[in-house]
């Protein structure tokens, strides 16, 4: 059985749930249709199976190593990346004008999910390059795009995003890397960057680092941050590779998981300063970086969801194959043992994984569709998609990171002792997935972003739009005999979430912002559960609509997972709302000395 | 700051919470008093810090290796184990008649917690030896005790427990290893064992494997299992080491964590059969094994709790040291950054870890005290302790495994990216702790044991005794102004748990045993939360009673964690009870084909 992703599931998400074909009616995407998408997915499936998955375990056991002055990575990684680039996949979602295929981001997201699930470590290099490329596509000058973006899309250059410094991670306004302006219009950068994935290796002709730094004399904090292109090698006027830039590897980080993606400490300006090219205007760097944050954060949630789903598929295979024990009603030890999938608790573990993994994937794909609408839709579509994406992004980033990890934890449990060994990949998925709550804004940061910024912004317009969408689904489902009970439960949940949100805002005026935000992380989980319940109901409705005549295991499975989620998971939001509504200050007020 | 365990916390648990001094009034324990205990704890603390903790990371990175015909383990492990044995710690809880110190198991449990927290991998060898020794002490003949147990207590021989086989883990009745009786009264064993920790190495003169096997012609299933001593080396009549027995290493398992404890696949009888000595009577092997299961399962929960606590202490250190960002009320980027412990969400993460880790440790220590009462108390004490231990054991094993792991997950989050690297030990604690839900009976098995056996057994006597104890604490606390609200919440929770249990039993008659047990794992979590809330309230009362004049950070911390648990954690049991009370069949009835 396929165990990276299942093609029929992906087809369900793209076509039945999210109607990719309707999206391809938009002028921006009119050059391709389902036959093109399917041909690309054929090729993705083949490359993932033949080039990515086979070396995933070897890469994990042989992480990139710095010796003799350079970073060594097992050769299978470059072979896989070459296959990816040769298939044109680096340019999938870039505009044709920039050398891309101009395909929907929704399709690109399905592609990314496939490679993340097959081999997180190897897929990291292209994911970063696409993210950096998107930033250049949006904010780079024509010259910068020609010089840097085109070779990235061609797969000759790879990209990185360099924000953090040893003393400044979440607190990005406190970075110290400085960029000294030069007479020729370039800058010289001096400083240190930390946690930079993909920033040193020999697998591409060049590495395009997008670096946040401060120009001396600018405003303090986040308002004084500018964005620079700092390539590993300078580029000659004819486009050929020039001298080594003054950016050097200071060391590698050795991680619990995600070991295949090299993670670097970088020094800028050990000698004369690293040559950097300003992107856009001075002091607008963080704003440019954040203009891509929605897609970057969808990418994190997506990789968490993809790892959860592949873990689920591996556990499912094992549960169908492994025999152990007998039905509770069978006390005769001479009868043969049954496959463990026959045990109620194993079914529970499988349903829980499926509900988490496919709820998370459905959410991420939905967010990707919104990103397409924001990019290519008409004005009304853009407005609405923008409002929804604003409020959903912290959830799309965090919910899969929380519950996708839990799914991987359970996948190990289905395997028992075997799952705890490195003979099976589920322990690797679990280690890989633990990163997702940390990078691109920690879980705590996402909670503050959701409750502190996104919920109140524009008079609560994003929140109201989300509630309106959920109510639309409630209305649709409440008229259908098979789903009326779920519609009612979702309506209760969204009403409770809305009432709780209003209560919190009311009390905040009296108790202050610190109390309002003290449980922001719990708010994030709470609203996430409501949103995923909504996504599940929409998926169940889509499955019901797509059902072939007679039995249809895929549709039955989606509906079973939806019911599981409503019965076992959604009710946890009730006690969370009680806590949130009283602006519980237990944590806020516990003095540091008593821990 | 000490980061293995804190001595003042251990003193709190032993003396303030569980009154070890009162226990030492029992005749069985009368030879030692607090001055002895404290001297032993001094020595434990020193050995853990100087001999165990320093090589924990090295051992994790250099797991035991099979080459040139033997298992190689870094020499620091044997040095640490030698120090442990030289301090007499292997015999701490064994009877003086068998060569032990005859100290309370409660003290032994504190010792184990310290070494598990310092270095799980190294501590595994002695933990297994003590467990195997306990089995021999209880069921071995005098000759077997002299021949095998005494050298184990002296630290010359190590022990193992060999139950599982490649095809039979949870389903132990299906083991196939056979023991052929010989004319001289010994047996010859043939078969394969899997997941045997500590079964092959060169660190002790001998390894005493306690092996489950079937004597041909016996009953099928669990009723035909016998227990054998199968030493790695035969022992000559003068006690010297004889020939190699026919038990051979077939391979090592390579785990995600707990890497330091060698885990083996064993072949018995590749040649003439492995010589084995029957323990007790034929076909009673599983019963003997299970007579020690309470303590073995307390040991698993304890190691999960100890890893959680040391992870918490490491995270606490980091949170006090690492600066990042500013108070929400401070928008001036030119002010210095604050230690992250000042942020409400970091306090939440610390309280959550503390509530999980110290709730779990309190629970395990309480269970250890019950084991002492069962062993050495008067008849009434024994009766009650036995009833409580029966119902608590699955919770003591599982609750720390579930929530201790969660605590380690959060410790990584407090560290951020740094916690995801192997430069800090929190990722190792997380990997180590993932084992605990798997060995000595999986989480699913514990749920079935609790709901299927322990709750209904003896007309519900265990359950009623537990409820009675909890109500006793409710009564005590309800008269105290500071704790009346907690008493009320606990009473509500235990009443709801009892009502739910009764409802389930009532419906089971109609809907059958499969439906009754379909959500046994959720019942395990639910009742676990009630029990830990009770343990927390008892700890809070003990802290309140032990409070020194004026400020007392330790006591304030216990009470803060207790309040956190009641406000943030306990309420989750309400939605679980709703699910349980309806005997939800969503999982049970989902067909295997739709996954």
UniProtKB/TrEMBL annotation, chains A, B:
Which residue ranges does the record assign to the Acyl-CoA dehydrogenase/oxidase N-terminal domain? Answer: 39-155
Coiled-coil residue spans: none
InterPro entries from the xrefs? Acyl-CoA_dh-like_C_dom, Acyl-CoA_DH_CS, Acyl-CoA_Oxase/DH_mid-dom, Acyl-CoA_Oxase/DH_mid-dom_sf, AcylCo_DH-like_C, AcylCo_DH/oxidase_C, AcylCoA_DH/ox_N, AcylCoA_DH/ox_N_sf
| Domain Acyl-CoA oxidase/dehydrogenase middle, first and last residues per copy | 161-268
> What sequence ranges are listed for the domain Acyl-CoA dehydrogenase/oxidase C-terminal?
284-448
Which cofactors are reported in the record for this sequence? FAD
Residue ranges crossing the lipid bilayer per the database entry: none
> SUPFAM superfamilies recorded for this chain?
Acyl-CoA dehydrogenase C-terminal domain-like (SSF47203), Acyl-CoA dehydrogenase NM domain-like (SSF56645)
- Gene Ontology MF annotations: acyl-CoA dehydrogenase activity; flavin adenine dinucleotide binding
Give residue ranges for domain Acetyl-CoA dehydrogenase-like C-terminal.
467-590
The entry assigns this protein to a family as follows: Belongs to the acyl-CoA dehydrogenase family.
UniProt name for this protein: Acyl-CoA dehydrogenase
What is the organism field in this record? Hoeflea prorocentri
Q: Give the source lineage, highest ranks first.
A: Bacteria, Pseudomonadati, Pseudomonadota, Alphaproteobacteria, Hyphomicrobiales
């Amino acid at each position: 059985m396929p165990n990276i992703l299942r093609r029929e599931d992906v087809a369900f998400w793209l076509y039945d749930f999210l109607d990719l074909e309707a999206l391809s009616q938009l002028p921006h995407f009119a050059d391709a249709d389902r036959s093109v998408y399917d041909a690309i997915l054929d090729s993705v499936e083949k490359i993932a199976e033949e080039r990515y998955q086979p070396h995933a375990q070897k890469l994990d056991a042989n992480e990139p190593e710095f010796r003799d002055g350079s970073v060594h990575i097992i050769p299978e990684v470059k072979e896989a990346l070459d296959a990816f680039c040769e298939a044109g996949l680096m340019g999938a979602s870039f505009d044709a004008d920039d050398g891309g295929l101009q395909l929907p981001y929704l399709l690109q997201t399905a592609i990314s999910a496939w490679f993340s699930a097959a081999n997180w470590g190897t897929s990291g290099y292209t994911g970063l390059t696409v993210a950096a490329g998107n930033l250049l596509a949006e904010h780079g000058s024509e010259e910068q795009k020609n010089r840097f973006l085109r070779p990235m899309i061609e797969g000759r250059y790879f990209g990185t995003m360099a924000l953090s410094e040893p003393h400044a991670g979440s607190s990005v306004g406190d970075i110290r890397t400085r960029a000294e302006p030069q007479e020729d219009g370039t800058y010289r950068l001096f400083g240190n960057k930390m946690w930079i994935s993909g920033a040193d290796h020999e697998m591409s002709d060049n590495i395009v680092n997008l670096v946040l730094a401060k120009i001396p004399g600018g405003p303090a904090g986040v308002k004084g941050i500018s964005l620079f292109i700092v390539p590993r090698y300078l580029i000659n006027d004819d486009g050929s590779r020039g001298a080594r830039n003054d950016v050097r590897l200071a060391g590698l980080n050795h991680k619990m998981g995600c070991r295949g993606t090299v993670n670097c400490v970088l020094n800028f300006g050990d000698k004369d300063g690293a040559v950097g090219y300003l992107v856009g205007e001075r002091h607008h760097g963080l704003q440019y970086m954040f203009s891509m944050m929605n897609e970057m954060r969808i990418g994190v949630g997506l990789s968490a969801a993809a790892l959860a789903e592949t873990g689920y598929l591996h556990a499912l295979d094992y549960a169908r194959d492994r025999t152990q024990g007998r039905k509770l009603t069978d006390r005769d030890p001479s009868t043969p043992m049954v496959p463990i999938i026959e045990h109620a608790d194993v079914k529970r573990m499988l349903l829980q994984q499926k509900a988490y993994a496919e709820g998370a994937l459905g959410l991420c794909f939905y967010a990707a569709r919104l990103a397409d609408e924001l990019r290519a839709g008409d004005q009304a579509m853009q407005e609405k998609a923008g409002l929804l994406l604003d409020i959903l992004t912290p959830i799309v980033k965090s919910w899969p990171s929380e519950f996708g990890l839990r799914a991987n934890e359970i996948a190990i449990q289905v395997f028992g002792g075997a799952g705890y060994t490195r003979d099976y990949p589920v322990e690797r998925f679990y280690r890989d997935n633990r990163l997702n709550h940390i990078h691109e804004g920690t879980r705590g940061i996402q909670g503050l972003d959701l409750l502190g910024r996104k919920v109140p912004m524009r008079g609560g317009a994003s929140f109201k739009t989300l509630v309106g969408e959920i109510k639309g689904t409630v209305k649709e489902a409440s008229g259908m005999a098979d789903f009326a009970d779920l519609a009612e439960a979702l309506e209760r949940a969204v009403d409770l979430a809305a009432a709780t949100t209003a209560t919190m805002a009311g009390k905040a005026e009296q108790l202050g912002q610190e109390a309002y935000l003290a449980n922001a992380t719990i708010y994030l989980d709470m609203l996430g559960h409501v949103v995923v319940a909504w996504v599940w109901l929409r998926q169940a409705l889509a499955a019901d609509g797509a059902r072939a005549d007679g039995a249809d295991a895929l549709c039955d499975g989606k509906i079973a997972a939806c019911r599981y989620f409503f019965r076992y998971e959604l009710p946890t939001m009730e006690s969370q709302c009680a806590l949130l509504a009283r602006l519980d200050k237990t944590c806020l007020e516990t003095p540091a000395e008593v821990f």
